[in-house]
Design a protein that fits this description.
- Belongs to the replication factor A protein 1 family.
- InterPro entries: Euk_RPA1_DBD_C, NA-bd_OB-fold, Rep_factor-A_C.
- GO terms for molecular function: DNA binding.
- The structure is a single chain.
- The chain has 402 residues and is α+β, with helices and mostly antiparallel strands.
- Helices cover 24% and strands 25% of the residues.
- It has 2 domains: 117 residues, OB fold (Dihydrolipoamide Acetyltransferase, E2P), CATH 2.40.50; 240 residues, Nucleic acid-binding proteins (OB fold (Dihydrolipoamide Acetyltransferase, E2P)), CATH 2.40.50.
- It has 11 helices and 17 strands.
- The strands form 3 sheets. Strands 1, 2, 3, 4, 5, 6, 7 and 8 form an 8-stranded mixed β-sheet that branches. It has a 5-stranded mixed β-barrel with strand order 9-14-15-17-16, surrounded by 4 helices.
- It starts with 43 loop residues before the first strand and ends with a helix.
- It binds zinc ion (ZN).
Length: 402
């Protein structure tokens, strides 16, 4: 990835035949598994064989198939290019760049990222080659209807659990025996910098790690680490008609929202700082929030949030976000699209491991299969399991409030 900074200079140059107009890093669909970390966003090329709503299925030259889900702008771009085809009912070739590899029910899928570019029937050698191989397929076939697995959780379920911010706050006052799950549609108004946008974590257990004089010490793992890794912890100020509060978003969800992982952004940020000799850095305490995160200010999103006993104990009211959904996917009238989105929800149901709270979270595993996790009691305090409580920077939260 090439990142531009405020001091990057871009100059136009004359066309040069040595520099190709397009440059792709196509990967065989067969090897997608290796790209699940999202560190590299693979480019794919194939024939569109099935389609439904904002999802398509492509086939590569080896006959391997994969589903791709287009997010917002990508879907608009896809539809735009498709409209230009003389006959969009027949299979056509597509290049989709910078995709993200996701898993659902043991099956890999792709979705678009913020860097994705789409090209339909682009005249590049890979497409020409594919055309030769799949020419028979193109003869008398039409694009099929993509069969997406349905789940019991649907838009109505979300609607029935959607509340406004003031109602959410009221729920915190009540005695909470078990976790409660709600959905809240709110606008992002601010990204708080006081507690930074990331935390330094142990690569083993992914929990917050304590810096020592010369190295880092992970208390749960009882060992030192040479290379701690930054993970996201974003504090979004959010607002709706009824009030405002703070939603805390952890690594997995933040990564999806931002489109790159925290370590990549962290390195870019350090580099930017180093290259721009900051004379005006009077406020060293306040961590500068990277622009790519601040870009979310003004967006209206549907947040799946959790209320736990922990929420009642803290002074500064925050809520842990389990999932962020683009509300247009719920409001759209395409039922299939909705179900696909819900399916994505469930797929990522492990997000409860992003729990910030000071109690363990034994429900995270189960939440993959169960639609809602609020029917599980959980033990409190101190019974953390390493795996489930990955992101808990509890100590720091407490410290920060102290
Ligand atoms: Zn550790």
């Amino acid at each position: 990835m090439v990142q531009f900074f405020h001091n990057t200079i871009v100059r136009a140059v004359a066309d040069d035949d040595n520099i190709p107009l397009y440059r792709f890093d196509f990967i065989q669909l067969h090897f997608l598994e290796q790209f699940r970390s999202n560190a590299v966003l693979p480019d794919v090329v194939g024939l569109v064989v099935n389609e439904v709503g904002d999802s398509i299925e492509i086939e590569d030259k080896w006959g391997q198939r994969i589903q791709i889900k287009f997010w917002n702008d990508c879907f608009v771009e896809y539809s735009k290019q498709k409209d230009l085809l003389s006959d969009s009912t027949k299979p056509f070739f597509i290049v989709v760049t910078s995709t993200m590899v996701k898993e659902f029910n043991g099956k890999l899928n792709l979705c678009t990222s913020s860097s994705t570019k789409i090209y339909i029937n682009l005249e590049v050698s890979e497409v020409v080659e594919l055309k030769g191989i799949l020419s028979e397929k193109l003869e008398n076939t039409t694009i099929g209807k993509l069969d997406i697995q349905h789940t019991t959780m649907n838009a109505e379920d979300i609607a029935s659990k959607t509340i406004d911010i003031s109602t959410l706050m009221n729920h915190v006052q009540k005695t909470v025996e078990k976790d409660l799950i709600f959905y809240c549609k709110a606008k992002v108004t601010k990204v708080f910098g006081e507690n930074s946008w990331y935390y330094i974590s142990c690569p083993g257990c992914k929990r917050r790690i304590t810096p020592r004089k010369t190295d880092f010490w992970c208390i749960p793992c009882e060992k030192k680490t040479e290379r701690p890794i930054p993970r996201y912890r974003l504090e979004f100020g959010v607002l709706d008609h009824s009030g405002s509060t703070i939603f805390v978003i952890f690594d997995e969800e933040a990564k999806k929202l931002i489109g790159q992982d925290a370590s990549t952004l962290f390195e870019a940020n350090i580099y930017e700082k180093a290259t721009s000799n900051n004379d005006d850095s009077d406020n060293d305490d306040e961590v500068q929030i990277p622009k790519i995160i601040e870009n979310n200010i003004g967006r209206e999103l549907l947040f799946k949030v959790k209320i736990t006993a922990y929420n009642r104990k803290i002074k500064r009211q925050t809520f842990t976000v389990m999932k962020i959904i683009d509300p247009t996917f719920i409001e759209g009238n395409d039922k299939e699209t909705k179900d696909k989105e819900m399916e994505d929800n469930l797929k990522d149901g492990s997000d409860s491991k992003e729990d910030t709270n000071d109690s363990s979270n034994d429900t995270s595993k189960k939440s993959k299969d169960e639609k809602v996790v609020d029917n599980k009691k959980r033990p409190h305090d101190g019974s953390d399991t390493k795996e489930d409580n990955n992101d808990s920077p509890n100590d720091t939260i407490k410290k920060a409030k102290a």
